[in-house]
Amino acid sequence: FPLQVENDFGLLKKSLKHYFGYDSFRPGQEEIIQATLQNQDVLVLMPTGGGKSLCFQLPALLKPGLTIVVSPLIALMQDQVQLLQDNGIAATFLNSSLSGAQARERTQDVVSGKIKLLYMAPERLLSDESLFSFLPQVKESVGISAFAVDEAHCVSEWGHDFRPEYRQLSHLRQQYPDVPVIALTATATERVREDIMRQLQLKEPFVHIGSFNRPNLYYEVRPKNRNSYREIVEQIRESQGSGIIYCLSRKKVEETASKLQLDGIRAVPYHAGMSTEDRAENQSRFIRDDVQVIVATVAFGMGINKPDVRFVIHHDLPRNIEGYYQESGRAGRDSEAAICTLYYSAGDIKTIEFLIGTKVDPTTGAPLEEEQRIANQQLRRVINYAEATECRRIIQLGYFGESFPGNCDGCDNCRYPKPVENWTVEAQKFLSCIGRFAQRDQSYGAGYTIDVLRGSKEKRILLNHHDKLTTYGIGKDHSKDEWRNLARSLLHQGFLEETTDGYPVLKLNDLSWEVLRGQRQVMIAIAPTRRDVSKATLQT
Ligand code: ADP
Ligand code: ZN
């Protein structure tokens, strides 16, 4: 068996060169392709640009039969197919942009075995009457070698781009249980990962999780205030390269684009309220460097491939870390240095909270409680990111379940570290308070824990008799903000877990116990707002 793998591998490398002209595989590709060739289900998590497409394209060429690629974006589909065809690879797509005659011709090509890769939008694959008989026909004539589900996070409400039509892809599994499924995404949170496996009913899949670190990106967070606009103008002028500015609302997009134009910067707006033609026009002007800056809502960017974006500025707070990672990740696809700046003000939190509150069922008008809860939780994570004093990469990558050692030298917190203090004693107080709750089978969030520590007389605390706990009132010497900073830092450093019980609650883990037993010191960076640096300060 090992010998065979070795032979396969030599063969794989040859075919990589033959079909795609590449000399070697990118990290993960060869293992994924091996698994696919052995008809195993596969889940691929790789950042954008990591080389996901090849993982199903090469097996599609090597296996008998047709590989069906499910892809959500028509524009993207066209580009991908074009690229393949330019390389002499038998690929085509079926979507609503084709005439009836064109579609018939293509289905003919597929059934007669002329095509190895067929790209389709999910709604077409599942609902189109004519296709209902088409798939069985393909299965009969040439066989289906695999279903490749691109942008697989679209099946998950926890992802940043949920598409209900993706949910129906499970029918494929039911109808064609023996056809392997390869699901691919650049989204890597554990929740989304589990959702994909469940929704697509992957059977003991081979899972590849690539590193999501983007070493060429510099991450920074700046306070949003009346100087921010000037800073942005300066940054654009200094950069000279192309950039994207993301705003939360269409109005803000329009305003900002006009202001920049008045300041002599070639900038155009992009949002879903514009006509399709205007949007396409502005997008293409940006891509061909006719304008320097595109000011956009999050509607912009999915499927846009402009490799030389030198900066991405978030004028407003993003709604979740995932979205921030994806949007900022549109910078520097060419691997050259690029800057990602996030402007942050407490006012943004209110705006987003308001928007979350407007998520209601369109027919009944009842609040979508589950969605609101998810959105609120995700917002807390963004706030944590914005206010963090640790390496930004620890937090971003931690969000994807990837541990990162810190000291990246490519974020504001690493370049300009804030003072660090030893807060082991405070951490012990905080953790033991959570431990006391746990002894009573209770768990609470940071806010409540801090109130208990600071001896609050709040009714809920008295009703719970938490004023009788030995940890009640032992933390009066620090402000709420200071305790919050500690809690955040404990979470980021893994000394504490956050789980949800309808709302986020804190739980102790093995590391918490090490801290409690005095086997570990807790060093935390002090948030800049804190004036009273009376404690012994360790400058880094
Ligand atoms: P993703 O879908 O993960 O965003 P792509 O599949 O579009 O990434 O690949 C990104 C780029 O890397 C493409 O230009 C692709 O041709 C290139 N690429 C993929 N695999 C290899 C490889 N083994 N060697 C060199 N270039 C590769
Ligand atoms: Zn860093």
From TrEMBL:
Its cofactor is Zn(2+); Mg(2+). It catalyses: Couples ATP hydrolysis with the unwinding of duplex DNA by translocating in the 3'-5' direction. One of its GO terms (biological process) is DNA recombination. Residues 33-206 form the Helicase ATP-binding domain. One of its GO terms (molecular function) is 3'-5' DNA helicase activity. The keyword DNA-binding applies. Coiled coil: none annotated. Keywords: ATP-binding, DNA damage, DNA recombination, DNA repair, DNA-binding, Helicase, Hydrolase, Isomerase, Metal-binding, Nucleotide-binding, Zinc. It comes from the Bacteria. One of its GO terms (cellular component) is bacterial nucleoid. The keyword Transferase does not apply. Residues 228-383 form the Helicase C-terminal domain. Its EC number is 5.6.2.4. Belongs to the helicase family. RecQ subfamily. This is DNA helicase RecQ. The chain holds residues 5 to 544 of 752 of the full protein.
